[in-house]
Amino acid sequence: LVDGSSDEKYNEIFQKIKIFKLDIEIYKSSFVPLLAIREIIDKVNTKYVTTMGDDDYQIPQGLQKSINILDSRVDIIGCHGIGLIIQDPIYNKNYKITDPGLYPGPHTLQDSPYERLIYQLENYACPSFSVFRTKSYQNIFGNLNNNDILKNCKDRLIHDELLHSALMVIEGKIIRENFLQVIRGHHPGRKIDKDHWKSMADKKDRID
């Protein structure tokens, strides 16, 4: 567990882990999520790894199906099922489930990193919730070299999603299958960011 909350909240979470005797290691971080993961990724010693945020839910059966596929296919680095999005679960008590499949990424099974990246950008979806081979995931985060650029980037859509997704498909092939794996919370700020960048892409504006 990588926690970027206040010291008070961190201590509260730490005490709950102790009380319930959970088999969880907790790390305090002051970085944006992408760099926070990089801080601890080398500590992971399991065969496979995946991530989730504080408003996300991974379905155990979906995770197991992804693991089974990775066990049977040596040519891919990651696998994921489909996702459901819960709109505004925190800010709106009358939240609703929106379209399935908003977050799963496309099949990126082209042979070259360049072809996979172009395909992923032209058919954009986010593969962040895939189950990955741990070594491949560590390689992905090893390509993040400049902390200052990401710390000073105020738009989380860029450093937590667009950059993250690009590094994943460059690293290797990722497959999507038709089973439920993740349920995501989706708050208004993310939708504003998503609409903003989609509008810029539709206009074919350049982002330098």
Describe the protein's topology.
Elements: E1 2-3, H1 7-19, E2 27-28, H2 33-40, E3 48-49, E4 56-58, H3 60-72, E5 78-87, E6 96-97, H4 113-122, E7 131-133, H5 134-142, H6 147-151, H7 156-171, E8 174-186, H8 188-202
Parallel strand pairs: 1-2, 5-8
Antiparallel strand pairs: 3-7, 4-8, 5-6, 5-7
Structure overview:
- With 208 residues, the chain is an alpha/beta fold.
- It is globular and about 45 Å long.
- The protein contains eight helices and eight strands.
- The strands form two sheets. Strands 3, 4, 5, 6, 7 and 8 form a six-stranded mixed β-sheet that branches. A two-stranded parallel sheet has the order 1-2.
- Residues 203-208 have low confidence and may be disordered.
The average pLDDT score comes to 78
Q: Please state the CA-atom Rg, rounded to the nearest Å.
A: 17 Å
Strand content: 15-25%
Characterize the main sheet: 6 strands, mixed
Helical content, roughly? 40-55%
Structural class: alpha/beta
Stretches where pLDDT falls below 50 for ≥5 residues? 203-208
Count of beta strands: 8
Give the distance, in angstroms, between the N- and C-terminal Cα atoms. 34 Å
Specify the overall morphology: globular
Task: Provide tags for this entry.
208 residues; alpha/beta; 6-stranded mixed beta sheet; two-stranded parallel sheet; 8 helices; single chain
What does this entry show, briefly?
Helix content is 43%, strand content 18%. By secondary structure, the chain is an alpha/beta fold. The protein is globular and about 45 Å long.
